[in-house]
Amino acid sequence: MKASNSLWKKRLDGQLTAQMADELNTFEMEIDLRRQGKVDEKVFAETRLRRGAYGQRYDNGKRNDGFKTQQLAFPGDAETKGPNTIWDAPGMQRIKIPFGGMTPDQLEVMAELAEEYSDGIAHITTRQDFQLHFVHIEDSSALMRRLAAVGITTREACGNSVRNVTGCPFAGVCADEAFDVSPYADALTQFLLGHPDAQNFGRKFKPSFSGCHQHSCGLAAMHDMGMTAVTREVDGETKRGFRVVVGGGLGTVPYQAKVFDEFMAPEELLPIAQAISKVFAKHGEKKVRSRARIKFLVANWGIEKFREAVLEERAKLNDDPRWTELLEGAEGEQETPLNPPGDLPESNGDVEFGHWLKTNIRPQRQDGYFTATVALPLGDMTADQLRSLADIARKYTNGTIRTTVEQNFVIRWVSGNDVSALHKELAAAGIGEAGAGAILDIVSCPGTDTCKLGISSSRGLAAELRKRLSEKIFELDEAIQSLHIKISGCFNSCGQHHVADIGFYGVARGVRGFKVPHFQVVLGGQWEENAGSYGLPIVAIPSKRIPDAVERITGFYLKSREKDERFVHFVKRVGKTKIRQELDDLTKDMPEHDADPGFYADWADPREYTTGDIGKGECAGEVISAYEFAMTDAERMVFNAQVLLEEGGAQKAGEEAYRAMIKSAKALVQIDYDDVSNDPDEVVEEFEERFCDTGVFYDPFAGPKFANYLLAAHKSAASPFTAESAHYRIEEAQLFIEAVHSCYTKEKTTAG
Amino acid sequence: MALNHQLPSLKKEDERRMELQHVNVKITVDGDLAVDPGRFIDVFHRWIREGVIEGLLIDVADYRHVPHGPGVMLIGFDSDYSIDNVGGNWGMLYNHKSPLEGSNDDRLSVALKSAVKACTLLEAEFADDGLKFSRQRFELFINDRALAPNTDETWDACQPILQSFLSTTLGHDEFELQRESEPRRRFGVTVESKQPLDFDALA
């Protein structure tokens, strides 16, 4: 925990937007209130998840040391930041990077944060986010503040919310795209962030954007809401639109998304997203967490009924000017080059450069410009590498860089004249590896390294496969070089194993009375065509034999494929039974434990393998109703009013107490009437009609007393406050909030 | 949004109040790293199990795949230890993470002594492989840009602090301090001692 946390608020004063500053001040207060035991641990867990502050393995204070479960004696182990999650245990901070777009300034701040709050490594995820590990919860607000100062929010990075909006990293420069989807991804991000209609989901919601259908760029088919750019000729004019699919998702059992609209006009994108959110919030499952993704709702209803429900909501929406305002300028050029165009150089006998040119460089649709992929081993990079990348991006481009779902970076707008020099500088920084998107470029989730749900070491396996493949990558047949390997530590598919050529997910098996880490081999997946098809598991193989399995599979493919037959077609033609036969012996004849104890441990981990460290994941967050969230806010606001009064701000204190009353009144109204706005006049009017005129709110002993506090406060909302009157208002607000709680409890108990 | 991450210049009163927390010390390996870095994974796991080193030890993080990266890390609650290769130089890096009471000298001392102790333990673990850490050269830096930004003002304020600490701790003045010159990196120095460090005395 940093001694300097409190200093950053002052030092960055004026560098954050008012809204971001306000949100972070609120989060800091929520941390304080939790420490004081004034916020329920479940509510705090969902609060911090919605700010991207996640749990990590061993945060329940238990860790198997290879012999027994050790208690990790964290200093304040009675305090928690969520159910069974110790306050002082290190956590993970997820940082959203909408459509992967970053600036050099942001890279430099990421470098600082990795050094000061984490283990020195910034990790890119399979959704274009960053993750920092081993972060203390009390450091998280300073960390978030420093990100906010460079325009990055962690809000809704985790939890039951709209997650990062991903987008093709070649959007805007790809020869195959219909048009640049970047501004639309940006618009959707801004529109849905904190949107009231997107706060009451039962699970997460993941949108993505693709520029084309045929490549893998946005992976629309596996997203909750996938948008693929399309154009149509209308009256001789080329019109932009989106093919919109809904209800896709990986997870334990992957679902392909269904077509919602073959051609949606851009101006409908945001209202439809809002309407989909409303439908998901209203009708999505909330009790059975494993069935709460939107894919189950779409599957249960069928796409026709789902579409009908969405369009019905759409028709009821009040016009929001942001639907079109946020799209202004979307049709113009979004980025420009720094340097004039040039031709791609020859490798001139430089073997390493030649490999890199072949695998990492791609021509843009703009002549003379190229994208350069920075392939990162397992998505990891150091702070120095981040700074070098920032320098390189500034030197050769206008800072145009994107993260990718393959856990890499793409530098865009590199002039052909600069490619050679750029490569030299990347290589000098240790980030000039060739093989981007190739078999060496293995994608892996964090797995048992840090994730509570990890069953087997996905990163350990990935590192071992990388090591073996790197020794011979460019000697391999081209057909093998181009294969995609993806590894998940468990069946939840964060490594996207379903859409790999060769996928793996971690499982455990009993062998001779011991547990042994295994991986299921998943074949039949298709990365291209926007996650065109999902693979299925064919056999579980001990983790230490997976490298052999890869050799067997690729060898069998080379030996048996038909001319130019792609791997996914080969698997389909040959059938999984035949491929499994090639691997069968790897599932038998396990060594005795004493003869090979390493077989009974996982990659890069000498401990006797166990599944005892698996904990309860936080991916599903906590289902906290909109009412609970709103009341937590109201409590915080009335507390804040006290603080303001103590600091001598009577006017601000009185106003804040009034706002707390409106907030809690609205929370009650919303149970009955979801669409009530934030306008205090409307809130009070609805409250009076539904709760006062009916007598529902009235206390059995005090009658309308507490309701009258609200009505009087609203009537005199514009009046100035003295210290005395602010004090009264705070008292009344607290009593009103208590009365709201009572009414809610009474109503819920009556309703059963 | 334009970056305005320049921290304001320190005022004179700040100079007097320079608080050096989160001290890191990296003692470089003498010569090449004679040991496969993967073997440190086994050692660090055993340290956790047996409580070999003071403080709550949590886990081992393997970053061997990252070029010039943190190598193999022993993650603790108050501090991390790693066989670190950042900058392309292998060394034992000690990172004190939690705030410490006391004076700057106290905090610097904890860091240096902890780093030396870890080096001594690792030399014993890998004595047969000839692992040796430098007795002449180590890096010392402050992992907190708010408390100690890498600026001329910090250098002016800290140089006397560091000089005094090192004179007392090493028992002589025959050392040179080379300041970290890249302003974006953390404030720190490389210490080159003309007399070898006495690890036994320091630990």
Topology:
The complex is a heterodimer of chains A (752) and B (203).
Chain A (H helix, E strand, L loop, with lengths): L6 H5 L6 H18 L5 H9 L3 E2 L7 E3 L4 E3 L8 E3 L2 E2 L4 E5 L5 E2 L1 H14 L3 E4 L5 E6 L4 H9 L17 E2 L14 H11 L14 E4 L14 E10 L2 E10 L11 E7 L1 H18 L10 H8 L1 H14 L5 H4 L25 H10 E3 L5 E6 L5 E3 H14 L4 E3 L5 E7 L3 H10 L14 E2 L13 H13 L7 H4 L3 E4 L13 E10 L2 E10 L4 H4 L4 E7 L3 H15 L6 H8 L1 H8 L42 H21 L3 H23 L7 H13 L12 H11 L7 H29 L1
Parallel strand pairs in A: 10-11, 11-12, 20-21, 21-22
Antiparallel strand pairs in A: 1-6, 2-3, 4-5, 6-9, 7-18, 8-9, 8-17, 12-13, 13-14, 15-16, 16-19, 18-19, 22-23, 23-24
Helix pairs in contact in A: 2-3, 2-5, 4-5, 4-12, 6-7, 7-9, 8-9, 20-21, 20-24, 21-22, 21-24, 22-23, 23-24
Chain B lengths: L11 H5 L6 E7 L9 H12 L6 E7 L7 E6 L2 E6 L6 E6 L7 H22 L7 E10 L9 H19 L4 E5 L8 E6 L5 H4 L1
Antiparallel strand pairs in B: 1-5, 1-6, 2-3, 3-4, 4-5, 6-8, 7-8
Helix pairs in contact in B: 3-4
Q: What does the model show?
A:
The complex is a heterodimer of chains A (752) and B (203). By secondary structure, chain A is of the alpha+beta class. Chain A folds into 5 domains: 7-148, Alpha-Beta Plaits (2-Layer Sandwich), CATH 3.30.70; 174-325, Sulfite Reductase Hemoprotein, domain 1 (2-Layer Sandwich); 351-428, Alpha-Beta Plaits (2-Layer Sandwich); 443-600, Sulfite Reductase Hemoprotein, domain 1, CATH 3.30.413.10; 626-751, Four Helix Bundle (Hemerythrin (Met), subunit A) (Up-down Bundle). Chain A has 24 helices and 24 strands. Chain A has a 5-stranded antiparallel beta sheet with strand order 1-6-9-8-17. In chain A, strands 7-18-19-16-15 form a 5-stranded antiparallel beta sheet. In chain A, strands 10-11-12-13-14 form a 5-stranded mixed beta sheet. In chain A, a hairpin with a 5-residue loop joins strand 18 and strand 19 (409-415). The model of chain A has no long low-confidence stretch (mean pLDDT 93). Chain B has 203 residues and is α+β, with helices and mostly antiparallel strands. Chain B has one domain (19-202). In chain B, 31% of the residues lie in helices and 26% in strands. Chain B is built from 5 helices and 8 strands; from the N terminus they run αβαββββαβαββα. Chain B has helices at residues 12-16, 39-50, 104-125, 152-170, 199-202; strands at 23-29, 57-63, 71-76, 79-84, 91-96, 133-142, 175-179, 188-193. Chain B has an 8-stranded antiparallel beta sheet, with helices on one face. Chain B is globular and about 45 Å long. The model of chain B is unreliable at 1-13 (pLDDT under 50).
